[in-house]
Amino acid sequence: MPQSTWCRKLSVASRPACCAGCRAFAEKESRETGRYRHNGGFRAYVAELMKPGTNNSSKSSKRRSKNRPIPATPARDAAVDVLESVQRGKFVEAALSEQLQTRALTPEDRGLATELTYGVVRRLTRLDGIINKCLNKPRKKLHPTVRAILRTALYQLVILDRVPQRAAVHQAVLQARTRVGDAAAGFVNAVLRNALRNLETIDPDPSDAPASLAAYYSYPVWIVERWLKQYGVETTRRVLMFGNSPSQLIVRANPLKTTRDELLEIFSGSGISAIPTVPEPDALWIPSTRCPVHELPGFNLGLFAVQDRASQLVAPLLKPRAGEKILDACAAPGGKTAHLAALTGNRADITATDENLQRLDETGRNLDRLGTAGVRLIHGDMTDTSAIRGLGKFRKILLDAPCSNLGVLRHNPEVKYRSTIQRVRESAERQLNLLKTLSSALDATGIMVYSVCTTTDEETTEVVTRFLQEHPEFSVDPILPEEVRIPGVIRPPGLLMTFPPPDDVPLDGFFAARLRKR
User: Fold this and answer.
1) How far apart, in Å, are the Cα atoms of 150 and each of 88, 134, 319, 427?
2) pLDDT the model gives residue 70
């Protein structure tokens, strides 16, 4: 962005927004330094810091040399720490949560750290492509910390429009010097300046070719090829951009303890803006918040659960009733279990199972917070026929099966880099086995809902087709449009498919089929 844009006082109304977190941080940074007051002041200051061959014998330089190096901002340091953890295989959400809990960050710093972390992971392939084109030896193995610093800086330079270029470069150089050494600082400075000089050449707009789209939007080529074949170029570009967009914070008011209108009043009284969504009867969208979710008013009291819009569509498809015996297989972390309990007014006999004991413990804590009753937690693998027999028969079963998670890339962007066709096929086999074993636990004329948060044919329609071929005693119980009331998400023969998302409804990619035993 032009330096003059930064040097004038920032105005939220007159500048394009990239995100609330980095916008607030930029305003805070300029406001505290006062450098926005004079056009060119900040530019001159940073230019002096970054000028090659600065005379170290000057008084100002001598004063600086006696002090410790100026540290990088806490938000950028936190982001680099998270990205290093992600490089070692940790999930973004867990790594970021750990950093935010251990660091005393301001709301602005929390917002910027979150934006940088998720933004970088969403665009890893594109950023790494820029880095490689700026190296004399493109295949050179970079120090993990240096790579994380370069990715963070390039995200600010290429994607964000609120961070001044020189400030981003300067902060990256500081981080490299502090974390790795002077040589790394010089290397980072050279790579970033090379990128800025040649950005239009090394980061061009993508063509319609699968490899070009995959590199630019940071997706595996096999996914892009598949979507191009199924949906065409225009829709594929739209869903690629949608998958790289920030997720929305959606909460479900807990009818066991409050109503949506009451929760709206509580949020409003605390200065939190919340917007009801339609058609979900209990959903609220919180556009921005400066505190962690667990610090929102009413969280500890169990007045709401964090649950995305598409996820809220699933439990009602089971049509749960008071007094029914219901099984929620693969229940962790308990969002849909709690929804089933709420829909029945805590008057159903619900069994929730999961094979991961730690996540089952988390489910128990969530259910306790939300005030659910009548839920029995069972640790076990639901592909084990003996374990299924021990549970008895159920009137209704919800199988929210483990999957490739390709429908929730806004929340879990690292998933796309770990997904392969082979893993998708392995997931599909496990899902089919779960359906087969669980079907034996359904009583006569019972109902089973199969759902996954992914988009692949292998894990959605093909699993259902294969199951019905092997179990003719089951048939599809069509989901009716009036049950969901979102145009375009019910596909023949009555299946819920929210991908590609409707133009005006930002839904994650969910699939659900309701199966009835005849």
Assistant:
1) 17, 11, 51, 35
2) 55
- The one-letter amino acid code at 115 reads E
CA 67 to chain centre: 41
State how far the Cα of 197 lies from the Cα of 234, in Å rounded to an integer.
31
pLDDT tens profile 273-313: 999 998 889 999 999 887 889 999 999 999 999 999 999 99
- Distance CA(425)–CA(433), nearest Å, equals 13
Residue 380 amino acid letter: G
User: Reduced to 3 states, what is the DSSP secondary structure of residue 169?
Assistant: helix
Active site residues: 453
Cβ 402 vs Cβ 430: under 8 Å:
yes
Taking the CB of residue 275, how many other CB atoms lie within 10 A of it? Answer: 11
Torsion of CA 137, 141, 146, 152, to 10 degrees: 80
As to burial, measured by CB atoms within 10 angstroms (0-12 exposed, 13-18 middle, 19+ buried), residue 316 is middle
SS3 352: strand
- Whole-model pTM? 0.85
The residues pairing with 491 across neighbouring beta strands, listed in sequence order, are 495
Q: What is the per-residue pLDDT across 118-172, written as a single tens digit (0 to 9) for each? A: 999 999 999 999 999 999 887 678 999 999 999 999 999 999 988 889 999 999 9
By the 8 A CB rule, do 318 and 398 touch? yes
| Under 8 Å between Cβ of 485 and 279 | yes
